[in-house]
Amino acid sequence: MNWFSTLRVFLSHGGRDFFRHKTLSLLNLLALAVGVAAIVAIQTVNETALRSFRASLDLVAGRPDFTIEGQGFRLPEKLIPLLRNDTAIREVTPTLSLVASLPNHPGEFLHLIGVDPFSNSELVTYRLEDALRSPTDAIAFVSEPNTIALTHSLANRLHVQPGDSIRAVSAGHQANLQVRFLLEPSPDLLGADDHLAIADIATVQSAFGLSGQVDRIEALLRPDASGKIATARSSLLERLTPHLPAHARAGSPERRGQEVEKMLGAFQLNLTALSLIALVVGMFLVTNTVAANVVRRRSEIGLLRALGLTRNSVVFLLVAESVLLGLLGSALGIVLGLQVARALLQSVASTVTSHYVLLSMREIVVNPWSLLAAGLAGLLAAGFAAWWPARQASLVSPVDALLPGNSADRAASPPSHLLRASLLCFLLTLLFSATALYARIPRTGFLAALSTLLATAFLAPALARLLTLIPSLPLSFTILARSSFSRGLHRHGLAAAALSVAVAMAIGVTIMVHSFRATVDQWIGESIKADLFIAPSTNLIAGALEPLDPQAETLALATPGVRAVGTYREIRLFLDGTPAKLAACRLEILRVYNPLTFLSTLSGDPYELCQKGDCALISENFARRRRLKVGDTVSLPTPTGTHPLQVAAIFRDYTSESGLLLLDRSTYRRLTQDQALTSLAIHLEPGISPQTVGDSLREQLRPRGEFLVYSQAGLRDEALRIFDRSFAVTALLRTLAIAVAALGVTLSLTALGIERTREIGILRATGASRGQILRTIMTESAYLGTTGILLGLVTGFAVALILMQVINRAFFGWTIDWHTPYPSLVGIVIGMLVACLLASLPPAWRASRLSPAEALRSE
Asked: pTM here?
C-alpha cells in the first residue's frame, strides 16, 4: 500500500468517525466557522469602507496626474492660469465642493461638486455626457441658473425627477437648485457616495457665496522626454512651489488617499485584531477535538505504526484530516461572515463618518482575495491547532497504542512545560509593551495583548489541577464530579484555556470601554457647561465641518435670557503629513464658562498668552503624537503664510483622535482670514429655561436652514450615543469569542462523554440514576467554568491595562482613567457560569440517556 492509499484509507475512516460522532464534529466545525466569520465580516467591512472612500475620492477629484489642494482652507482661482501657462500641463480643471443640508428632506444632504465641464472631460469618472445628451443640454448645464445633476439613487430617495427643484442651505446661503439631469458613476466605482450632485463651478460659487474660490486644481501632464509622468510631476512641483500659498499642497493625487487610508488604518487594525481572538479561541477547541480523536482511534494509529507508517506520516495524516475539517469550517464561516458584514455596515459607516471622513456605504464590497485570506487563516488555524496532539500521538509506540487502556494522561504535557511557556509569554508581554510605547511601534501593542492571552491559556491546566485539591461538598455527585474533572484534565485543560482567553478578552474590553466612556462622560461634565449648543445639521448626519449661518451668532445674542455666546470654528488639515484639527474660540468666554483641564502650562496665564500673542493650546494626544511639550513651536500653514505658534499649554480633550490645535478667535481670524463659525455655545442667565430659549432659537433659525439645537444634557446624550455606536462592533466581536468558548465547554464534555461511555455504563449498572449522572456532568462543567472564569477574570484586568496604557497611548495618545464596571463584571461572571451550565446540558442529557447494556457493550 503506497502513501496516498494510506491517506485515502485513513481519511475514509476519519469520515466514518465524523458521522459516528456528529455532535462533536459539528461543534468543532461551528467553532472554526465562527472564528472565520469574524475575520470575514471585519475584512469585508474594512474593504467596503476603503473602496467607498476611494470611489468617492475618484468621483470628486477624478483621476489626474497632478493636484493642488488647500488644506483646511480654499484656494484662490487665480492659480488656474498659472498652471495653464506651464508647458508641462496638458489640461487643467478646478473643482469646488461643499456639503449642503436639505431642509425639506430631513436626514439627507447634498455633496455638491462644482466642475468645469469644458475642461474636465478627460478626468471625471462619472458619465456626465450620458446626462447631457445634446448640445442644448450642455449649454443649459452651464448657462441656466442653479442647474444640477443628481445621482439616480439620491433622486429616487428624494422623490425628485428632472425638472424638480430642491432647497439647499450651506453657511447661511440658500439656493433652489434645479434638477435637470441624472448621472451614473463609472461601473468600477462601486460604493461611491450617492449623495453626489454635480453643477457648473460658477453656479456653486455664486449660489453659496464662494466667488473666486476653489478646493482643488487638477491637471493632466505631458510626459517628459523619457516618457515618464513622475519626472514631469517633480519638475512642475519645483517650478510651482514658490508661487503657491502656504496652505496649498501640491503633488501626486494618490497622496491624500494614502493619508486618509493610513488614518483609517488604526481603526481597522483594532477591529481586525479583535476578530482574530475568536479564531484563536477556536484553535484551542480544534486541539481538544483532535486529541479526543486520537484517543478514540489510538488502536487504528497503532496498527498503522505497526505496519510501518512513520511518525511524521502519522502527524501528517492527523493534520490533513483537521485541515479538511477546517476547509468545511472556513466555507461555512465565509457565508456567515458576509451576513454579519451586512449587519455591521451602517454601524461602521457612521463611526468612520463621525471620526474620520464622509463615507456612504449601502452594499458590501466582496474582495475574493480577502475571502481567500480568511479561508486560509481557518485552514492554517486548523492545521496548527492539530499539530501538537498529532505529534503526541506519533510519539506513542505501536505496542502501547495497541494495548487496552487510556493513554491520554501520558500524552498530556507536563505542567512544568506549560508554566515555563506561560512565564515566557509574560516576558514577551513586557517586551512588546515597551516596544509599542518607547520604540514607537504601535502594532506591537497587539502582540503584547496576544502574549498575555497565551500566558493565560498555558496557566489554565495548572489552575484546573489546583481546583481539584479543594474539598468538594459531601455529596455523591460532587465527589464524583471532582474526581471526573481531575481525571479529565487532558480534555478540560484545553477547554479551560479557550474559556479563560475568551473571558479575559471580554473582561479586558469591557473594562476598557467602560473606563473610556466614564472618562469621556466625566470630561463632558467638566468641560462642556453651556446651556445650549447650535450647529448645522450636516455636521451630524454627514460628519462634516460646514460653516454655521453667520447670522446665528447675532440672533443668539439678541435672544432674551442669553448671557454670553461662545463661538467655535473647527477645520480638518494635515500638519507635516499627519491629520489634525485646527480650532478657534473666544478664549475669554471659554475661560469663564468652560475652563480647560490643563496638564502642563508655560509660566503665566495660558489664556492671556494666546489672546495677546501667537500662542496655541494643544490637546494631549496632539502633543503625544508629535512629541511636543510646552514652549515648543508648531508651524501652521494658512492662506496668509506659515505662522510659528508657541505651545502655551497642553490640555485634556477627547473630541478628536488626530489631536486638536486651539487658538483664540482673534488670532485665528488674523492668521487665516476665515470669519466662519462651526457651532455656538450659549450661556443663559440664571433661572432662564433652556427649553424656552431653545424653542425660540429653533423658530428664528428655521427659515435659514436645518440646524441642531442641543441642550447640555442633549449634547451629552448625543456624544455618548456616538461613543456607544463606535464600540458596537467591538461588542459583537466580544460576543462571538464568548460563543466559541461556550462551544468549547460543550465540545469538551461531549468528548469526555464519548470516552467515558463504559464508565457511565458501570455507574448506571450499579444504581446511579439518570439525574445523578446529569448533576455529575453539570457539576463537572461548573468546575471547568470556574477555572476559565477565575483565570480570565484576573487576566482580563491585565488585558484592560494593556488596551488602555499601551495600545490606546501608542495609537491615539489619550489618557483613560481607570473605572471598574463592577455590575458588568458580575454579569459576565454569572453569564459565563450559566453559559457553561447550559453548554453542559446536551452532553449531560445524552450521557444520562445511555442504556447500561449498550454502554458496556460499546467497550
From this structure: 0.77
